Amino acid sequence: MLKLHTLSRSIRRNLPVIAASTGLLLTSPTILAQEEQADDANTEQIVITGSRGAPRSVADSPVPVDVFSEEDLVAVPFTDTNDILKTLVPSYSLSRQPISDGASFIRPATLRGMPTDKTLVLVNSKRRHKAALVQIGGSGTQGPDIATIPASALKGVEVLRDGAAAQYGSDAIAGVINFQLKDNSEGGSLSVDMGQYYEGDGEQFTVTGNLGFALGDSGFVSVSGEISDQSAVSRSEQYCESWACVDVNSEDFLSGSSFDTTLAGYDEAAFIAGLEDASIGFGDVVQPWGQPNTSATRLFINSGFEINDSTRLYAFGNYSASEGDGGFFYRYPGNGTIEDLRLEDGSLYSPLEKFPGGFTPRFFGDITDVSIVAGIEGEFANEMTYDFSGRFGSNKIEYTLKNTINPSMGPDSPTSFRPGDLINEELQLTADFTHFVDLGMANEVLFAFGASYMEETYELVGGDEASYSAGDFASSDPYGFCDNGTETAAGLAVIATGSTLDCSNPDDAVFTVVGVGSNGFPGYSPEYSGTYERDSLGIYVDASTDITDAFFLQTALRYEDYSDFGSELVGKVAAKLSITDDINLRGSFGTGFRAPTPGQQGTTNVSTRLPNGFPVATGLFPALSAVGQALGAEALKPETSVNFSFGMSGTFDALTTTIDFYRIAVDDRFYAVSTLDVSTDETSGDAYDNYLALLSAGVEGAESIGGVNYFQNAFDTVTSGVDIVATYTMDNTVLTASVNYNKTEIDSDASEFLNTESQHDLENNAPEFKGVISAKHDFDALTVLVRANLYGAYENAIDSAATNIQEYDPSVLFDVELSYALNDSLTLAAGARNLFDTYPDEGDSGDACCGRVYWSGDTVDWQGGYYYARLNYSF
User: Averaging pLDDT over each range in 56-60, 115-119, 662-666, which range is the top one?
Assistant: First the structure.
């Protein structure tokens, strides 16, 4: 067994024996748990995430750290690790976003109000690679896909709720989440979980398990896997808006300007009959709103082998394959996509010939995630510890689009497309060391120091030609039938054969211009495909010591140099003061630095959005692209931050509690500017100028784009709040409460980049208050768990001027679970999430249009109640 002297020397003299061996460094994986363990009753929780140099107890940590055991994770009625964290950590928020391209499959999350890319995610204390998806709106976050980590692989999770960029590098502005993998050399577990929503949809089936194997006499291999399948959820009503209504039960059926004109191929009976197939059979509405169909197979392996008492090899990695499919906005006759087109022979064509009832594009994502980490750790003869490691991670998303068309190709358009792939890869080499140095102080100073080299690659793989090419109908009068309102010789020729062509009528189909590319998600063309690369070097030093028996001090400096953004030096100071044996004060001050990822610099996308409630094609272009430059975008630069926190931890008989205040100031925050209108109308002012900018940049199909935006370092923000965590233990009952208050405010003039709606929503569209209160009681073999999930009030601006603001009332969602131990190995559990089938307020028009009942960006779950049963077997 590896016995590193610094482990015992770094722990304060009054700490008990560590119950489960932990890694020496934050960058070191978990050591085999084979040493003699102390009784649980005499053991404190030890964390390795709060201090770079050595593990400390939760109460002894100078910064707030949540520690969740395997038992805590199993007790949460979710199988997705994202949802487990959302339930356990109030400051961790997550939402379900239908019709949001890849975000429907890889959900964005926040910690302390900061997006995913400002939270560092670790597995076994090693950096986790990012997903290939860049969110196309708002903060444009690109972070790891936590859902690729099956809960069955986890021995525990540590959540550091404090800025730590100086210790761990870029991404750690809001905090650090460290997933500790199981390290069992024998035994295992198996869990079967199934359930569905009260509405009778969203059926889910998950099988997950773990097996441990001995690797010789001094090693282990722990294998964890998961297979899951979940069907779609729809919380929708039939599409019926002022511009188009297809609800046969409404008196407004087929009303709206879109149906005022008779379209070629339009037959009312055929249209009504075709409505059933408009969304390829997903529900009884043309546009289902809800979580997508998903399925996944995931595998994680963790291993370690001791060469001798002071040297250990380790390796771990994963493979994950998942797929999902969801719908886009419904395309109705006359919406700019389903329009009459004048063919080369002068006749009329309508996409209704392919889709009699209109159509809803169906979006498919196949995601492959792989990683491998390997290293060696040990101790030199002078008692300095070392850890040398390397890692490689890759995340690939392959998109498919069905039940749609390339409108510009007219009748020649296929109905299925491969718009392209996204690939993110990372390669990192690290060297980490710790060493105690006697500087003549009351206690030795522990120095942790090291270096990291990382290469990042982001690739946009081009789609099939039909997914991006401009067909004949991307421009007006493609066959030259008209000249200044009169027919040319070609026009007269088709009239002679019976064509209804009328060049004097500006509404004649000969002048119709429609969109370019696979409608809903145009493919990546050669101009916007390619690879973005960078490398970076980081060097850090961390020093910590007990100045006195009551005062602990830690300082850290980190220098990072990026090939694309230059260098930066950041620092942090943290301290803990023991007022009594049971009460500690703690605080920290630090600076941070986050360089935009290669993906954030290079991503491009054209999708349908609702900037003012009405669907328009909106293009997102890189800041340094020809389009971005034509629109006035500036080169991106790093975000910088200043973090401050102050709190206390205390134990009062059966009650333990922590209270931590924080303030996170971010300058030059990375964000998507509000959608800029685009119009071919010469009298539309800036909108026409934006159209000209697209033309000058060579954008094919510019006439069909209604809005554009790009990422910028747009403004400064200040996020402040407080975390309160309390646990009260009584005999067989444990009461816990975790509460977070979080408020973000814009701290600069953002009007150049954000409209009033975007500014309002950034500050108000998430509940400022979120809490989780739970009670767990054991009746011998029966365990009862009741949990209340509390959400405060919040607001959502409906229009760009924020003249219409919807206020959402607070919500409380209750969970309950009954668990019965049939024997020492077998446990049966049954329960319900959102027991009383509580829903948030229904959305107003605008952001809740087009068949939506609830605002899809709502943090509060809008799927309703869910009941489930689970069988756990351990051996």
Answer: 662-666
Domain count, the chain: 1
CA distance to 106, 325, 721, 840, per residue, from 322 (Å): 10, 11, 36, 30
Residue 356 counted as domain residue: no
Q: How far apart are CA 773 and CA 725, in angstroms?
A: 10
Q: Residue 261: what pLDDT?
A: 52
CA–CA gap between residue 679 and residue 682 (Å, rounded): 8
| CA–CA dist 464, 461 (Å, integer) | 10
- Asked if residue 618 is part of any domain, the answer here is yes
Cβ-based neighbours of 496, under 8 Å, separated by 6 or more: none
Quickly list DSSP for 21-71.
---SSTTSPPPP--S----GGG---EESSS-SSS-EETTT-SS-EEEEEHH
Instruction: Take residue 580 and report the two structure tokens written for it.
Output: 């009594």
Which position has the token pair 């982001």? 458
Tell me whether residue 247 is in a domain: no
Domain region containing 755: 5-236+287-327+361-475+512-546+571-874
pLDDT attached to residue 798:
86
Q: Record the tokens describing residue 540, joined without a space.
A: 């850090």
Residue 16 in this model has a pLDDT that exceeds 70: no
Element (H, E) at 602: helix 598-602
Tell the burial category of 875 from Cβ atoms under 10 Å away from its Cβ (0-12, 13-18, 19+). Answer: exposed
Identify how many contiguous H helices and E strands the chain contains and give both numbers: 10, 44
Looking at residue 44, what is its pLDDT? Answer: 54
What is the token pair recorded at 138? 């708002």
pLDDT at residue 5 greater than cutoff 60: no
pTM: 0.91
Write the CB contacts of 442 (distance below 8 Å, at least 6 apart in sequence).
Answer: 546, 547, 548
